[in-house]
Amino acid sequence: MRNRWNIKVEVLGIALAILWLLPFYLMFVNSFKSKKEIFLDTTSPPEAWSFDNYITAFQELDFLTTLFNSLLITVVSVVLIVLFSAMAAYALSRAKSKMSTFLFFLFVSAMLIPFQSVMIPLVTVFGQFDMLNRGGLIFMYIGFGASLSIFLYHGALNNVPKSLDEAAKIDGANRWQVFWHIIFPILKPITVTVAILNIIWIWNDYLLPSLVINTTGSETIPLKMFFFFGEYTKQWHLALAGLTLAIIPVIIFYFFAQRSIIKGVSDGAVK
Amino acid sequence: MRTRDLSYWLFLAPVLLALALVVVVPMLLGLFYSFTAWNGIQTGEFVGFQNYLNLFKDERFLDSLWFTTKFSVVSVILINFIGLSLALIVTSKIKTSSLLRTTFFMPNLIGGLILGFIWQFIFLKVFASVGEAVGMESLQAWLSTTETGFWGLVILMSWQMAGYIMVIYIAYLEGLPKELIEAAEIDGASTPQRFRYIIFPLVAPAFTVSMFLTLSNTFKLYDQNLSLTAGGPYNSTEMVAMEIFKTAFVQNAFAYAQAKAIIFFIIVAVISLVQVYINKRREVEM
């Protein structure tokens, strides 16, 4: 009885999983077809697996440059968010005072502000200081990423006993050394969570780069995808090859880090 | 470490500077600009509440607000229902559990813009060809009406977010005390009874978290809206985030767009806080 029930659940699960993957299947098989073949049939596999669409899309997207831009911006932003947020959360959790409470509240309440509410002044102010470029974008990501990251680090730091700090101080370490040699390594599990949440968001962000990056050659993948798609709306075979190319790096990342990713997302939401 | 130590401020300096310049200053400036005739370059004259009064008569803005609300309500219900169902499936004793989790979660790793383009292809091309093959005219010309555009967005968002919400429910379901469920089973509680009286009350905190996430995500939706329907046909599927963007950067009505953005902030903040407050109270009662 119990066993039969489980088999039914399993079959239902697998059926749903197939349904979940169907959009990716459709994108993938059609990306190998010609324009005409897509017009005739969208559901079967292609007659011939030709890479022509991919070659064109790869060149049109300037894929290696675009991929590099996305990697550069994501990696630099996430590294800085992790380091700076951990430092800030450490100070806030170790110096208990009204000032710390106020600053923590300020950081956390910034999470409630939708991007649209600050978007227009942000762009005009940064424009006046000639900061609408990749450096400016990374700086903005630090500002927007700080809230959640500090919140998560703060929660984790409250579980790290202060006696650790004190022991290291007696041994002659200063604040800076205590933090980097003792505290930061202990925070590794939460660092993975913070890094993953920020990677997913920054890698996929479209709106902010669309407002900040306005030089050809500096575009991130979502930004380039938007322009590419606009040009190829009538040429689905090329558009689909481009979309598949854009997704490949994410699939590779997911393949190697799926456990930490799902755990990170769940910890980030539950804490 | 004490608040008056130099090291305290040095540890805080980088994020304080970034938060101040990226969030605090623009927020305050934005609030100020919303009361002026600012055009992006010059502040212009002080107009008091004029921008705010105008937006309550702005049909396009009100329509986008109403569309966003409808979309959020339907999506929140669907996403939570599907997410909880998926979580119950993958936490039962099945062999493919981890493979299924990986699959259901996958769309969340890919940007909303890209997902919207993929679904645009499915609605426009695949639906049309399937519709032709089986003779269902209703499957053709999807996204070309307000109604199909609405459901297109709902389907896209449910498909994407259910896996995320599933992960949250899993975390709570796996934390449930097994003895409690087994005890109920021995006492003769049926599956629906166990669900109604034990599992559901115990995962209520998960509902608070996931509702907060789905609500704020669907209410602030932009990328998927842009790539799936671009607000069309005739701006009828335009959501608030997109409407504000267009007011500012297409019509160049900066101060007016900023007033809309402030109202948007107030709505988002009120919804988030009220929602958490109500759910927290309900949790205690249960």
Automatic annotation (TrEMBL), chain A:
GO terms for biological process: transmembrane transport. Coiled coil: none annotated. Its main location: membrane. The chain crosses the membrane at residues 12-32, 67-90, 102-126, 138-157, 178-203, 236-257. InterPro entries: MetI-like, MetI-like_sf. It comes from Planococcus rifietoensis. It is a multi-pass membrane protein. Belongs to the binding-protein-dependent transport system permease family. GO terms for cellular component: plasma membrane. Residues 67-257 form the ABC transmembrane type-1 domain. This is Sugar ABC transporter permease. Keywords: Cell membrane, Membrane, Transmembrane, Transmembrane helix, Transport. It holds the Pfam family BPD_transp_1. It is found in: Cell membrane.
From TrEMBL, chain B:
Its main location: membrane. It is a multi-pass membrane protein. One of its GO terms (cellular component) is plasma membrane. CDD domains: TM_PBP2. Residues 65-275 form the ABC transmembrane type-1 domain. The keyword Transport applies. The keyword Ribosomal protein does not apply. Pfam families: BPD_transp_1. One of its GO terms (biological process) is transmembrane transport. It is found in: Cell membrane. The chain crosses the membrane at residues 7-33, 71-92, 104-128, 148-173, 194-215, 261-278. Keywords: Cell membrane, Membrane, Transmembrane, Transmembrane helix, Transport. Belongs to the binding-protein-dependent transport system permease family. PANTHER family: ABC TRANSPORTER PERMEASE PROTEIN (PTHR30193), INNER MEMBRANE ABC TRANSPORTER PERMEASE PROTEIN YCJO (PTHR30193:SF37). This is ABC transporter permease. It comes from Planococcus rifietoensis.
